[in-house]
Design goal:
It is built from four helices and four strands. By secondary structure, it is an alpha/beta fold. The chain has one domain (8-133): Response regulator (Rossmann fold, 3-Layer(aba) Sandwich). Strands 2-1-3-4 form a four-stranded parallel β-sheet, covered by helices on one side. Helix 1 links the parallel strand 1 and strand 2.
Length: 139
């Protein structure tokens, strides 16, 4: 995967309330200013899943102030890497972008016990993404 000086990554899931929020939070923490991070949903929820907020707080990441955002064509166009997480064909396709699809369990309607393994898998994948981008994790 060829990468610009500061690559831009967009995480997309349906509600932008769980998986994509966790992925964006981990990439922001581990990539710092060396990567631009966005997240969005094809049908955003009203709020971030409270179990997701709690699970991330357990590892020292505070996303309590985050809100789900709508997926826009502009966000996709401005991103070098687009990672979808169960949003199907809702994400527009543009040539020259790197598209990845991460199959992950949806944390919607689940308690923090069920969210923890999803959180841990997302962190593992973020560390792999950083390696692919040639960026050393900050933590």
């Amino acid at each position: 995967m060829s990468t610009p000086a500061v690559p831009s990554v967009l995480f997309v899931c349906v509600h932008n309330a769980g998986r994509s929020q966790m992925a964006a939070a981990f990439l922001t923490r581990l990539g710092g200013e060396r990567v631009e991070v966005r997240s969005a949903g094809s049908a955003p929820a009203e709020a971030v899943n409270p179990a997701v907020v709690e699970a991330l707080a357990e590892v020292g990441i505070d996303i309590a102030a985050e809100t789900p955002k709508i997926l826009t064509t502009e966000a996709v166009q401005a991103s070098d890497v687009v990672i979808t997480m169960g949003c199907g064909d809702a994400c527009p396709f543009f040539p020259g972008k790197t598209y990845l699809d991460w199959t992950l369990e949806d944390p919607a309607g689940q308690g923090v016990e069920a969210v923890r393994p999803i959180r841990d898998e997302i962190e593992r994948r973020i560390r792999g993404l950083l390696a692919d981008l040639g960026i050393e994790p900050t933590a």
